[in-house]
Amino acid sequence: MSSTKPPCFVCATPSITRCSQCKVIHYCSSACQRKDWPRHKVACTPAGKPSPTLESATTTTTTTTSNKGSTSSTSTKIPVDPSKPLKLTPVEHDPSSDLKPEPLASSTKLKFKFEHSQDGIDLNLLIFFHGLGDKIEPNFVQLAKSLNLPQTATVCIQAPTAVPFLEEAGWQWFPSFNIMTGELLGPEHKERITQVKQVVRPELVKFVQHCIDHSKFPANNIMLFGFSQGAQIALDLAAFGGIPLRGVVSIAGYMMEESENEEPANKKSMTKILVMQGDKDDLRSVKDAKEKLKHLERIFGKANVQQLIVDGMGHGMPNSEAGWRPLMEFFAMSLHHRAIAMEKMADVYEVK
C-alpha cells in the first residue's frame, strides 16, 4: 500500500522531512523548515517528553492575530494563574479577507496588469519590470503566472516610453537610443537619468504607496522582480523610493551608472537583494558584474546583497535548474506565509 506524505506545515505541499526533535511537524524543504523555526522552536517538545500542562508555570499556546488585513500565526508562552481560568475563543477563518482590493487604474499614468494570487490568498505582492524593448504581455504576464508563488498577487508594469522605429511595439524605461544613428545611449546622456528621476521614479513610488494604502499590502510584503533595464528600475525604486520593501530579484541588471554614487533614501536598508548574472552574458562580463556588485553592497548593505553567477546563462532569464532553484529558494525565504491549514482547524483557540 502506498502512503500519503503529510503536507508541509508552511506551504502544504507533500513533505520530505520533519522536525528532528518533536518528529511531528513536517516540511517540504530545509528552506520552509528554517522559515518556520522561529515559530516552531517555542512550541517544539522533544519526542518522548511530556507536553506542558496547566499545572506548569507556563503553557504554550498558538494564537492567531490580525494586523491591518493580514493574518499570521505565532506561538507564545502565557503565564498560568490557577486562580484565573483561561478563556478560550475559537479562531474562525474568514475567506473574504484573503483577497485584497485591486490597485486602481487611476493610481498611475503607467499601464499595469494585476492578478490575484492563484491560491486565493493575497498576502504578498510581487511587481514585475520588463526589459528594454519588451512589454507586459504576453511574456511577463505569463512569467508571473508560471511562477505560481503561494499567497502572492502579481503586478506587471509597462515602461512609459515607446522605443522608436520598432516594427512591433516595445517599451523603454528611459531614452535608450540615438534616434539619428540607432546607437545605445550611455550614462553621459542626461536624458536617461532625467526621465527616471522626473517621471519613472515618482510614478512608481506613487503606485507602490497606493498598493500599500488602498490594496492593504504592507511594504514589507512587497517584492520587485526586474530583467535588464527593468532590473535597473527595480533597484532604483528600492534604493531611492523611500519605501522599506521586502526584496528585489534582479536578473542581468545593476544600478544605473548615474546613480551608483548617490545616497540611498534609507540609510539602514533591510531590503534583500538577489542579483543573477550569467557567465555567458554578452552585454556584461563576470569581472564587470563583480565591480557593479560593490555599488549594490554600499547602497543596500553587504549583508543584504547576494550575487549568483549562473553557468551557461546568457543575457536572459534563467533556463536551467541551476538558475531557477536558487531563485525559488530566495522567494521561499523572503515571502511571508500564513498557516492556512492551522487557521481552518476546528481545535485552534485564541487565549484571552
Automatic annotation (TrEMBL):
GO terms for molecular function: carboxylic ester hydrolase activity; palmitoyl-(protein) hydrolase activity; zinc ion binding. Keywords: Metal-binding, Zinc, Zinc-finger. Residues 90-101 have a biased composition (Basic and acidic residues). Pfam families: Abhydrolase_2, zf-MYND. Gene3D superfamilies: 6.10.140.2220, alpha/beta hydrolase (3.40.50.1820). PROSITE patterns: ZF_MYND_1 (PS01360), ZF_MYND_2 (PS50865). InterPro entries: AB_hydrolase_fold, LYPA1-2/EST-like, PLipase/COase/thioEstase, Znf_MYND. GO terms for cellular component: cytoplasm. Residues 8-44 form the MYND-type domain. Coiled coil: none annotated. The keyword Zinc applies. Residues 51-76 have a biased composition (Low complexity). The keyword Signal does not apply. Residues 44-102 are annotated as: Disordered. Belongs to the AB hydrolase superfamily. AB hydrolase 2 family. This is Phospholipase/carboxylesterase. It comes from Entomortierella parvispora.
